[in-house]
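Record passed on here:
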Amino acid sequence: MDDRHDLGRSLGVLFRAWQLAVNHAVAGLPHGPRGYQILTTLATEPDEPTQAGLATLLGIDRTVLTYVIDDLAAADLLERRPDARDRRVRRIALTPAGDARRAELASSVALAEARLFPTLDADEARVMRDLLARAATGVHGHDRDACAVVAEIMEDAAPVVTPR
């Protein structure tokens, strides 16, 4: 295989370029691009994710995510809400200020992202974004809370104990 077509290398290069470009676009937002990803995820998810579900969805270590959420909550951009079914679980939700801040930053981020594909024309860049979004959705089965999926896996993997 030609090294230019190595997926890991290509994704790594694009991700680093995205981080650098978006870091400038969201200057002043707690945790920069990561904070923006969280705000955008909360705005687009059909249900408020749990903190653990959000960590899984975005590939962020759960302990690191706690600090990021603390800082975003301190800035009144999101809040932790008790889950209606289990008061020990916290759902993460955008505040009105968080949604307004995300919307305010969206055009700056879109301009930064538009520069990520300098060798593609506008139609090719749109197709690239659509394909990446579809591939990412397939990874997580976007229509389900990641915590529910993990709970099912753990339940299925639980050893069967037979009485003696």
